[in-house]
Amino acid sequence: MSHDAFTRRKWDELWAESEAIYDPAAEPQLRDSLALIGRFWPEPSGRFLEAGCGPAANALNLALQGVEAAGIDLSPNAVRAAQSAFAQRGLDGDFLLGDLRQIPFPDESFDFVYAGGVVEHFRETELALAEMVRVLRPGGRLLFTVPALTLSYPYLFLRGNVPAVPIVEEILSAVQFQLLRGALARFGYERSFRRTRVRRLVAAAGLVDVEAGRFDTYVSLLQLPRQLRGVARRLARTNAFAPMWYGTGVRGS
């Protein structure tokens, strides 16, 4: 099974079926991602790239603040949704069909690059980070989030996740995509990371002001029995069950 083709199909189907929500008050994950971006970009200005943009909800909210927004996504349905949302609101945006491992923008094009829940969907993480750094201007910041490899992993396994750990990833990839034929993998190929690995990835990309930490965001618990969801949400607030990590750094001059 081709992981790239499988993932592309899954996300194109998802964006075809989903109605995009652009109001942070109505979408917890959007609220949380905008808060994380605001933490590292409190006075946004210049050019913003949403890498793996989906329908570009983060980009649209920043464009409403005067930021020049752009985005790429591997799903044609997502790119069309982003273009339509911007056009309906009279906003300018540059949205292209593209892959993080080969970003279709020139060097030093952006002041801030955000990839929320994207780089886990393929194995060439270092290549994607190098590409995002390439399109950053000196002094620009990269921020990305990934699923956390913590004690919450059994839940992640039930949605098709594999840990980004040598040998273990090979074994569980075989289970998920050869034995189960991707039946659990609603979001395509997806990996989870240890916090130390996230920090090393940012540093290895040549960035400074490196930081990695927990990203507290809403996680769908629909696959759990209703009586367990409250307990699961409380556990997710502890470091041992952190749902996601963020990694960030600044391109030097």
Molecular structure report:
The chain is an alpha/beta fold. Helix content is about 40%, strand content about 20%. It has nine helices and nine strands. The chain has helices spanning about 5-15, 30-40, 55-65, 75-90, 125-135, 155, 170-180, 195-205, 225-235; strands at about 45-50, 70-75, 95, 110-115, 135-145, 160-165, 190, 210-215, 245-250. Strands 3-2-1-4-5-9-8 form a seven-stranded mixed beta sheet. Strand 4, helix 5 and strand 5 form a beta-alpha-beta unit. Helix 1 (about 5-15) runs parallel beside helix 4. The longest helix has 15 residues, at about 5-15. The radius of gyration is 17 Å and the shape is globular. The N and C termini lie far apart (about 40 Å). The model has no long low-confidence stretch (mean pLDDT about 90).
